[in-house]
Specification:
CATH class of the largest domain: Alpha Beta
Helix content: 25-40%
Strand content: 15-25%
Number of strands: 32
Structural class: alpha+beta
């Protein structure tokens, strides 16, 4: 058999179907466009849904593609089994109302066995069919000439594709026999007959014959237009042609695995498949997971999804963290994943050429995420090993500790536990996790209930030093005061929400427009307490609101750890606020005065007092100038001096509505920005990466609010969400246009749709897409009214010649709505002196109209319909309602 590279396998597939008049569909983004039902493109056919359900006309009734997809529902199997990948490619050929079973099977057989194409040995191929699908069985037997002992009739579980309501049908699968070497127990074809998981008979092709419609209640009717949906996993095909034990030893993954080997003394072993060794199996698994996950992350980020705490971003974050944990098992203790991006792109960019242009942003995003996680990973690993050594299991409480305080996803805790043959209390974890969320939610609601002006605080003179400019952790911070509900405490118990003052703290209290820090406090015995809020008391002490994890005593010495990721992002945004303020004054003039600001880890806002709304050109200039200053990488300078010196020597901007101490703190970036500020900032502006103004709006009374983001990943994530939101906003109207365009075309609307769909997701187009969507909505309103009027008129014209029988016309038509029924009834009323008209459709709307002087009221005709039970209302001449059920 031929030895083929992955690129050759893909090319042969596409070339074959192009030779059979199939239109090649370019692979689309992993992030679905105009399909909010999907988190990721999860199959080769997912991108074709609008063609199959009739929303869009396909460019051809015959289509072929090689489409990347992501599935993460069984991520724990990646690296463990032979053929699970997070991201994979599906080779596909599709027929939409064109050829059906016979041609689909013939195409498959020719491509697989012909010497001009894949040239697989015929004797190595086996087939399964649905046990009720005699047609497919006979095509394989009589037309292809396959012997009956190679065709297996299988049940519904394996050979009927059905996802509930919608198109469905039987399928036929083709398997390749890799030989006895992959069947150590010599079970043979029984593996296939009994659907036993194995590495000998590998599925290479699945042809779905979409010929029925499921009404959702498992009632099946024949589809008027039958379709073919075919899928073949590229990775599986390549492993067959390259004769590898699993998909991971192919040229799709081995370059990455070899690159990882250079970073560790551990080696990947191909022989381990045949002579398994427990320790080597764990090593191989770690290599596979890293190679799989970095490939998935590279594509996902290149397609516009970035690490975050929700949805797609959380999946990417989880993949990066999972890779870091398994890298630790290989002895890799430094950021390295971003370096593997070059290898992935080198391997995949022959077909996915756009990856080269996305390399820098992908590497930067992964490096940033991995670096942040590694800071907590080492501590988490130490704690994990300490726990299992001491307790021989992971309790629910310790699982929650690893999850909340050290960023270990519960899936990773479970996997690490399995590797060490120890039990993790997952049920208990779920309960504690939900309880903790409820406690934190209630604590956040009530974290400001303590009265800053209460006597207990106004008289308090304990010393409390803020050391958070220099460090984010301390080893021996002493609890010098505790209270709750205005009562002083000497002891606090588990789950109690209390306020604590420490003799020294790195936690920044919310003030000066900067959000407070969060993080943890750790007892000497390793018990964790969550810091959920920090506020400044009346005498300047930082007051920490804490959810107690076990027990805290007055005088305890605690380790403090600020959430570094939150602090860093907040610092980016606070420094961004200063630079934006400076450029606002440069562009608008010194009359533009700051009236307020707020920044946290998610972004920032800056309120400016000015005599008018800034123009769009001014906003662009302000943003561009701020980004120039960021790119210059100005160093942060900090000075402590008198207010007079701050203003005269350092040109600091002071808000004279504020009160200042005798000594003030000046934060300065070159000669561009100099402000009195007690907040935390980046050491140099380049760390901010980028600044993007997302909106400017009037807050009334001459105050205008700038809202902005920093860092490239946050900005890109925002753009992806906004573009998706704009496109989804007009999804219904686009589908309606496709329907109405059969009656009335519109080049301008079609052009607008094309512009909106093809618009690149970049900052420069953020305003453009909103303008285009606004223009589309306005044009579509006028178009829809005209098109529906034409459609109604054309349909109604068809019914003008209707003749009543016994003074009655009954009209059943599923394409008519109430407006059309009324038009038809008006025409017929004018035509006949006495008429009873009934019209109803599958949309469950019913119209009953009686003309002239009715002897039977229309409402009675409606409610006494012999075929349906109808709920509705009306009078003697007109009634309408909904069909409840058939009689």
């Amino acid at each position: 058999m031929k030895k083929l590279s992955a690129n050759e396998v893909r090319k042969i597939w596409l070339d074959f179907f192009k030779s059979k008049q199939h239109h090649f569909l370019e692979p689309v983004s992993l992030v679905p466009v105009n399909d909010p039902s999907l988190l990721w493109i999860n199959s080769g056919v997912a991108t074709l849904k609008p063609y199959f359900d009739g929303r869009l006309n396909p460019p051809s009734q015959r289509l072929t593609n090689s489409q990347k997809a992501i599935r993460t529902n069984d991520i724990e199997n990646v690296g463990v089994t032979a053929r699970h990948q997070t991201m994979f490619e599906m080779l596909g050929n599709f027929s939409i109302g064109d050829y059906f079973k016979k041609e689909a099977i013939q195409f498959a057989w020719e491509l697989l066995t012909s010497k001009d194409w894949y040239a697989m040995p015929i004797e190595k191929l086996y087939v399964t069919v649905f046990d009720e699908d005699d047609e497919a069985f006979n095509i394989w037997k009589d037309i292809i000439g396959l012997s009956e002992d190679k065709i297996f009739k299988m049940g519904r579980d394996t050979n009927f594709w059905d996802v509930g309501q919608g198109p469905c049908g039987p399928n036929s699968e083709i398997f390749f026999d890799r030989g006895e070497i992959w069947d150590p127990k010599n079970i043979g074809v029984k593996l296939l007959k009994d659907d036993i998981e194995n590495d000998r008979y590998i599925e290479v092709w699945n042809i779905v014959f979409s010929q029925f419609n499921n009404d959702g209640q498992n009632n099946y009717t024949a589809l008027p237009r039958k379709n073919i949906d075919t899928g073949a996993g590229l990775e599986r095909m390549v492993s067959i042609f390259q004769e590898t034990p699993t998909n991971f030893e192919t040229d799709l993954f081995m370059p990455t695995i070899r690159a990882v080997e250079k970073l560790t003394t551990k080696r990947y072993s191909l022989e381990n498949y045949f002579k398994p060794n427990k320790e080597q199996t764990q090593i191989n698994t770690a290599f596979k997971i890293i190679a799989d996950h970095i490939r998935a992350c590279t594509f996902a980020i290149a397609d516009g999804a970035f690490p975050s705490n929700k949805d797609r971003g959380y999946i990417i974050r989880r993949l990066i963290r999972r890779s870091s944990v398994y890298a630790k098992a290989l002895g890799i203790n430094k950021p390295f994943l971003s370096d593997l991006v070059d290898v992935v792109i080198s391997t995949m960019s022959g077909f996915y050429t756009y990856l080269k242009d996305k390399k820098d942003i992908v590497k930067k995003s992964i490096l940033e995420e991995e670096t942040k996680f590694l800071k907590t990973l080492t501590k988490g690993y130490e704690l994990f090993n300490e726990i299992i050594k001491r307790e021989k299991s992971i309790s629910a409480k310790n699982a929650l500790l690893l999850f909340e305080s050290y960023g270990f996803p519960i899936e990773i805790i479970t996997e690490l536990g399995e590797r060490e043959n120890i039990k993790v209390d997952l049920d208990g974890f779920d309960k504690l996790f939900n309880d903790a969320k409820e406690i934190a939610k209630n604590a956040n609601k009530n974290n400001s209930v303590w009265n800053k002006q209460s006597k207990i605080l106004t008289d308090l003179k304990v010393e409390s030093e803020f050391v958070g400019y220099e460090t984010l952790t301390t080893r021996n911070s002493k609890v010098v005061f505790m209270f709750a509900n205005d009562k002083e405490l000497s002891e606090a118990k588990q789950d109690q929400v209390i306020q604590i003052i420490l003799d020294k703290t790195p936690f920044y209290a919310e003030k000066g427009g900067q959000a407070n820090d969060t993080g943890i406090l750790v007892n000497n015995d390793g018990q964790i307490h969550k810091v959920i809020d920090v506020q400044s008391g009346p005498n300047g002490q930082n007051i920490h609101t804490v959810v107690v994890g076990s027990k805290i005593l007055l005088g305890d010495l605690l380790i403090t750890e600020v959430d570094e990721i939150k602090r860093d992002l907040t610092a980016n945004n606070h420094s961004g606020t200063h630079l934006l303020h400076a450029t606002v004054r440069e562009v608008l003039g010194n009359d533009a005065t700051q009236t307020g600001s707020y920044n946290n880890e998610d972004g920032f806002r800056l309120d400016i007092s000015f005599n008018r709304m800034p123009t769009q050109d001014e906003i662009v200039k302000i943003s561009n100038q701020a980004n120039k200053y960021i790119a210059k990488n100005f160093k942060r300078e900090v000075y402590y001096c008198s207010l007079k010196d701050a203003i005269e020597k350092h040109n600091a901007i002071a808000l004279f509505s504020d009160k200042y101490d005798s000594e003030v703190r000046v934060v300065k970036f070159s000669n561009v920005s100099s402000e009195l500020c007690g907040g935390t900032h980046v050491p140099q502006t380049g760390i901010i990466e980028k600044l993007f103004v997302t909106s400017v709006e009037s807050k009334g009374s001459g105050v205008y609010r700038f809202t902005a983001l920093t860092t490239e990943s946050k900005i890109q994530e925002f753009l992806e969400e906004q573009f998706s939101k704009q496109r989804n906003e007009i999804l219904g109207q686009k589908n309606k246009f496709i329907e109405l365009s059969k009656i009335k075309s519109s080049k301008s609307i079609a052009s607008l749709i094309e512009k909106i769909d093809s618009l690149k997701i970049i900052e420069e187009n953020y305003t453009k897409i909103k303008e285009l969507v606004f223009e589309f909505k306005n044009e579509f309103k006028l178009y829809q009214k005209a098109a529906e009027s034409e459609m109604t008129d054309s349909i109604v014209d068809k019914f003008k010649s209707l003749e009543p029988i016994n003074n009655k016309i009954v009209l059943i038509n599923d394409s008519l709505d109430m407006q059309m029924f009324k038009k038809i009834s008006d025409i017929l009323q004018n035509k006949y002196d006495l008429l009873i008209f009934e019209g109803f459709n599958e949309l469950l709307k019913v119209c009953v109209i009686s003309s002239s002087d009715p002897k039977i009221p229309a409402i009675d005709i409606l409610k006494n319909n012999p075929r349906f039970e109808i709920k509705g209302g009306g009078n003697s001449k007109f009634a309408q309602g909904k069909i409840i059920k058939s009689k």
